[in-house]
Amino acid sequence: MDPIYESIAANKRWTYFFFLLYTILFGFIGYLIGIYIGSPILGLLIAVIILVIIFLVSYYGGQNVVTTMAGAREVSKQEEPYLYNTVDALSIAAGLPMPKLYIIETNVPNAFATGRNPENSSITVTRGLMNRLDRLELEGVIAHEMAHIKNYDVLLATVAVVLAGTIVFLAYVARYSSYGGLFRGRGRGQGQIVFLIIFLVLIILAPLFAQLLKFAISRQREYLADATGADFTGYPEGLASALEKISYMQEPKSKIQNEALNGLYIINPALGAKRSNRGSTFFSTHPSTEERVRRLREM
Prior knowledge:
alpha+beta, elongated
């Protein structure tokens, strides 16, 4: 099997595994909350309903929510022919439908893709990306975003981010509920105390667990999108050069910085606030730029 398609298959298996863990954790929290409200089944049912609603909202409305949050506006072929022609050529090369195009009016170069499937997707670029990269570099970035669409990365990443946020919220609710539970639990025996300890450990670990899953998904997908995008253009150096430029052109407190969206961009905009530390860290949403460039130049 081609190494890229082998990586895609492995990536999908990890994704299903992560979402299974999410679902189990989500259901477990709901079950525990149900115990505190006197009906474990009701707590579990509420957790399932919330999970389904979150999936539906993320699936059908995630694209508009993300572009609106980013401050992007949709543009036509007549408004941006250079961008349109570049994306159109690469969509043909990738075997994908033409996505909608959005622009963010800022001189800081960056880009991201969103959507629920290749037929309902969009690519957003900043004005700075078009003005500060040459054509081969711009093609490398667009091809990277095309790869995210083709691999269904954006939908999965969006859902993962929303789920992580929801688990954090539920953990907060559980923590609040536990205060009353502790008082009600007095005198109910050792089993109740053990249960409360497990419960407290869970609500402490839940946010960290959710965040780590989000990071794990994000990093692997960036490597894979780099390799797939380079395969589309047949010129890995274009994307490698673009990554180096974009990384060093991020600015502190720029317009595109948004804690909820940083992980979607090809380069995390928060780099602009951390110029002294460009390496990958355990809590980083992206692999280090140096490692991404090294892998591209070894292709």
